[in-house]
Amino acid sequence: MRIDKYLWCTRYFKTRSKATDATKKGRIRVNNDIVKPARDVYPGDMIQLRKDQIEYVVEVIDLPANRVGNKLVDLYRVDRTPKENFEAKEMIKLNQDYYRRKGEGRPTKKDRRDLSNVLNQEEE
Predict the structure, then answer these.
(1) Which CATH superfamily is domain 3-123 in?
(2) Within 13 Å and on the Cβ side, how many CA atoms surround 39?
(3) Can you name the residues that pair with 29 across neighbouring β-strands?
(4) CB 64 within 8 A of CB 86
(5) On the CB side of 65, how many CA atoms lie within 13 Å of its CA?
(6) Burial, 38: exposed, middle or buried (Cβ in 10 Å; 0-12, 13-18, 19+)?
(7) Would the CA dihedral through 18, 24, 25, 27 be positive or negative?
(8) What Rg, from alpha-carbon coordinates, does the chain have?
């Protein structure tokens, strides 16, 4: 099975074209080699993929016939991603929240509505 199809079937990417694009950009490695979208994967291969600033490590167990449901994905792969990778993503998220807290910056539509309601009540 092609690597882009495998990643789509095991629900790492929403569409097969997104899996193909990620492979073309060099974000997918099979057994530590950068691969093209047409590269075949076999049971026992180790796949490393970078998605959403997380470096996933996946071992192929079996090849699905077509896209599988979320509950059945574990029959076809073993996720060997270290927990530190997910913790790093959380730290990045917390850093972004530090710079823009609620109420700072440009007001949202809800903020403007609330402000106009307060001003209208004061006029009455």
Answers:
(1) RNA-binding S4 domain (3.10.290.10)
(2) 19
(3) 34, 48
(4) no
(5) 0
(6) exposed
(7) positive
(8) 22
Entry pTM? 0.72
DSSP conformation class of 39: -
Q: In this structure, what token pair is assigned to residue 74?
A: 């574990």
Contact call for residues 66 and 9 (beta carbons, < 8 A): yes
CA–CA distance, 95 with 93 (Å, rounded to integer): 5
12 in Cβ contact with 76 (< 8 Å): no
Q: Tokens representing 44?
A: 């026992």
Three-class SS state of 85: helix
Q: Domains of the chain: which residue ranges?
A: 3-123
Residue keyed to tokens 């309601």: 117
In the block, residue with structure tokens 């972004």: 96
- Record the tokens describing residue 28, joined without a space: 């997918």
24-81 per-position pLDDT tens digit: 999 999 999 999 999 999 999 999 999 888 899 999 999 999 999 999 999 999 999 8
Q: Residue type for 100, please?
A: R
CA distance 28 to 45: 13
